[in-house]
Amino acid sequence: MAFPARRGPSILKSRGHTSKQGYHKEPLRTMTTPLKQLLREHRTELLDEWLQRAQTIWSDDGHSENLPHEWTLKLRAIFDDIVAAIDQTPTDTFELNPESPLANHLTQFVTAQARTGNSANRITSLILALKNLLSNRLVTQSHTDALIDLIWLERVFDRLTLLTFSAFVEVRERFIAQQSLSLMELSTPVLRLWNRILMMPLIGVIDTVRAREITEQLLEAIARHEARVTILDLTGVPVIDTGVAQHLMKTIDAARLLGTRVIMTGISPEGAQTLTKLGVHFNDVISRATLRAGIAEALLLIGQRISPIEDRRP
What we know:
The protein is elongated, with a radius of gyration of 36 Å. The chain is 57% helix and 10% strand. The strands form two sheets. The protein has a five-stranded mixed β-sheet with strand order 3-4-5-6-7, sandwiched between helices. Strands 1-2 form a two-stranded antiparallel sheet. It is of the alpha/beta class. The protein folds into two domains: 33-184, Globin-like (Orthogonal Bundle); 191-301, STAS domain (Transcription Regulator spoIIAA). Strand 4, helix 6 and strand 5 (229-236) form a beta-alpha-beta unit. It has helices at residues 34-60, 69-86, 101-115, 120-141, 147-187, 208-225, 242-257, 269-278, 291-301, and strands at residues 17-18, 24-25, 191-194, 197-203, 229-236, 261-265, 286-288.
């Protein structure tokens, strides 16, 4: 009995590949995952619900009015960027390009919020609200295994949360640095009392950084005004110890090189006793107990004095 010849296994030609079970599997980049299907079919609905949650967060902070229009526009742009990022093929890690539209929009939004005094919790709550919204809808509406999509969402939003905190901290640190610089400039003013007489009132603790700022400000003013006499008023310095004395001596020595005489005023009795016990001596430095006496001494050094106006009678 003749049997038909055996044929070799047929080959299914396609852009995909054949699985061991014999059916064609679509490439990963063209597969429609539950997450992509959710975003494609319910994109507008998801955006509206996220904006409603943003309104709730805004109201919980004590605002009675609606969400600002500029907020709505920025959140819409951020939503579109996040959807575009999620729509990528899932990978082991999510790398966010700092120059990407998503990074730029999110950084600009965080910067604006940080400058107006809003907390990082509010901004992070907005990002996490979108994450929770997508995760809950994905679990509720998906009839297939959504574990891969949930892991991908976790990776994407972890990176976005980290970017949010980093941008917020950077803005706040820059703002604090600017405030510190402004306070330092205000705490080391150089006042022109009279022609070629300057005064610098010192207030607060003098550390190494501030001592350097004091020296730079004072020397610049001495050179600019060609001052012959400079008054350093220490009335507002709470503690005068060896460190403060060393900083003052360096400042005084530098001022002398520019041709000015230095008068120190306002040293308290306790401060004088402390300096004496420590063996600190301000040689060749004129010292007066009060600022009033220091100003009178400075005027004498330039050949001036304060005198009462004589009554003129007709």
